[in-house]
Amino acid sequence: MAGRRINLDDETSDRMSPCSHTRTGRKDKGKKGGDDEVEEQAESFAYKILSQEQCTELMGLEVTDIQNKLCEIFKLSNHCTDLQDAATLDYYTSAVWWGKQQSFTTQQLSGFFTMVHTLFTNVKDQHMHLVDNLKEMQKMLRGIEPEYSDVKSAGMEFFNLQQAKSISEYMFTSLFQHYKLFEFMFSHTQAEEIIGTDLEIEVAKPAAMPFPPPLDEGVEESLHTSYIATPPPSPEPEVTSETCVQNLDQEAQVDESAKSTEPPPVEDIDAFSELTPQDVLEVVESVTKDLMSGLQLDLAAKLREKENNLIQRINKVHKVADTT
């Protein structure tokens, strides 16, 4: 019985050995999967979405040119009519311009844009919840200047701690603060409005059409000649010798009547020829008196004013002398 028990134990141990190997294999497999996950997370974020050449070109452009370049890269040709494409282009443009203002290098700009593109795509295409998207951003920023050496980088190790804080603040103010608005926009279809304009242009009738117009536009001949047709020009009178004589007589009569209505000529009269030297002197004296009277009054008033001022000064001097 003892030997048989030993055999059973040995057989049991042999039967259990494959299970133990299987568990060990599972542990090794799980460990290998964890290493692969770490390696995937440690892959750099730079140059995933934007290449180095594209980042270099964007760094030297202005806002309008950056928008046109991103529109070309991401093929957002309907941004003028499609609200979702317009919002996407606007967000990408503002992100690149902000990275340029922060003086990022091409590697940092590409890594930052990869992060922006990933988080924005989570809202746009995957409709990810706010909390899950925040966790994704936290994973991306992991390993930037870590306190412990065993913390693995997520692929953005080319940023420092201060830059990571600035990126986190930018993402909160630009994306997460308006998260509900982005969710609503990307989950509802845009209402389409078709606006049309009808323009009627009257053109000349072709030469092949019959003339006159069809009978439905016709009127009676009497009405046409009385109200529509252009009247014929009046004939000019014939010029004969009798008419010429009559015209000459009429012109002579008009000239005579004009001469009779003219006023008689006025004779030239020299007014100064009858004046004597005495008359001239009287005129000059009267004029000078009129002119000088006003000047004399002004001079007298000024002399009185000066005289009063001098008298006041003299009185002041006497008062001062009496008091001393």
Structure in words:
- The chain has 324 residues and is mostly helical.
- It has eleven helices and no strands.
- It has helices spanning 2-41, 52-59, 63-74, 83-101, 106-124, 130-140, 161-174, 179-187, 221-228, 241-261, 277-323.
- The longest helix is centred in the last third of the chain and has 47 residues, at 277-323.
- It is flat.
- The termini are far apart.
Keywords:
mainly alpha; 0% strand; single chain; 324 residues; disordered N terminus
Number of contiguous helices: 11
Main beta-sheet annotation: none
Strand content: under 5%
Structural class: mainly alpha
The global form is flat
Helix/strand layout:
Blueprint: H1 2-41, H2 52-59, H3 63-74, H4 83-101, H5 106-124, H6 130-140, H7 161-174, H8 179-187, H9 221-228, H10 241-261, H11 277-323
Summarize the structure.
The protein is an all-alpha fold. The chain has 11 helices and no strands.
